[in-house]
Amino acid sequence: MVSTGHGPGAFFPWDLSFMTLPAIVLATLVAGVGSVWIAAWLNRGLMAHQTPHMLSLAAGALLATSFMLLLPEAFESDAEPHWLFATVLGSLIFFFLLDKAELWHHGHEHHHGHEGHDHGGHNLGSGGWAVLTGDSLHCFADGVLIASAFVADTGLGVLAAMAVLLHEVPHHMGDLSVVGATTRSTRSALIKVSMAGAMTLVGGLLGYWLVDSLRDLLPYFLVLAASSFLYVALADLIPQLQRRLSLRETAAQVGWLLFGLSLVSLASYVAHMGHAH
Question: Is there a contact between 159 and 10 (Cβ–Cβ < 8 Å)?
């Protein structure tokens, strides 16, 4: 359990401990599902005419989420680095096998056509499932973290929920782009990513009752989520970006990739600064 060394009134002058569970439910819903809806609104409003570049933004957001947020958080814990690296390796192999199974399924089912493949023959469904799997694990871990913070101190829980909301919005912008490409439906993508975001509530509820035991498993949840995002970015998205383009198109592609990296990195930095203060 997280302990700040202060009582429930460290941030507020009154005792709100009786409101801890309702506060966890509200905070995890806002941070988990609310962040998806904000991301969808931003995608629709700000990026509506930049669809060809959304895969570049998604790749940058997923890479930054893995390297700048999830993996550092996992390796700063008391977990043995050897086992964390082993989890990364095992997870990457698992998602590779999931990818192969998906390719085999589509190849067997559509051997007379090309449904489920893009113009280059690459299967898009596997990337969507890997993202949703990683997103669910990531959101579950966020829920446990929020619950841990609320149990320690109400104000700390509010700050933790705000931090999760802040770093999840740019990440979900990338998720919606990837899942939208697999479903060809914006509404379906929003429902699926919202369901993954709802795992924040599940993590929060379980975290409230089992915070001490789940806390030891958090680094492994984070590593699993990071591995899924790494696999999707490196094995699914970036290969699609490796096409011969004009100098201007290449510059735009790189620019959107860096924009995705910067969005998540900046959000992560601001969230950590706010949490520290």
Answer: no
Judge whether 188 and 128 are in contact, CB under 8 Å: no
> Is pLDDT above 50 for 2?
no
The amino acid sitting at 208 is Y
What tokens were used for 53? 């570049």
Report which of 244, 131, 152, 259 is spatially closest to residue 207, judged by C-alpha positions. Answer: 152
Domain total in the chain: 1
**Cα Rg of the chain, angstroms:** 19
Q: What is the separation, in whole angstroms, between the first and last Cα of the chain?
A: 20
- Residues of the domain holding 73: 20-276
Q: Is residue 99 part of a domain?
A: yes
117 domain residue, yes or no = yes
Instruction: Encode pLDDT of 237-250 as tens digits.
Output: 788 787 777 888 88
Query: In terms of residues, how long is the chain?
Result: 277
Closest CA to 241 of 224, 219, 223, 257: 257
pLDDT digits (tens, 9 = 90+) for 152-189: 677 767 877 877 887 788 778 878 878 877 776 788 88
Distance CA 40, CA 69 (A): 21
3 state SS for 19-60? HHHHHHHHHHHHHHHHHHHHHHHHHHHHCCCCHHHHHHHHHH
Under a CB-based contact definition with an 8 Å cutoff, are residues 176 and 44 in contact? no
Residue 15 amino acid letter = D
CA 109 – CA 103 distance, rounded (Å):
10
Q: Kindly tell me the sign of the dihedral angle through the C-alpha atoms of 212, 269, 171, 117.
A: negative
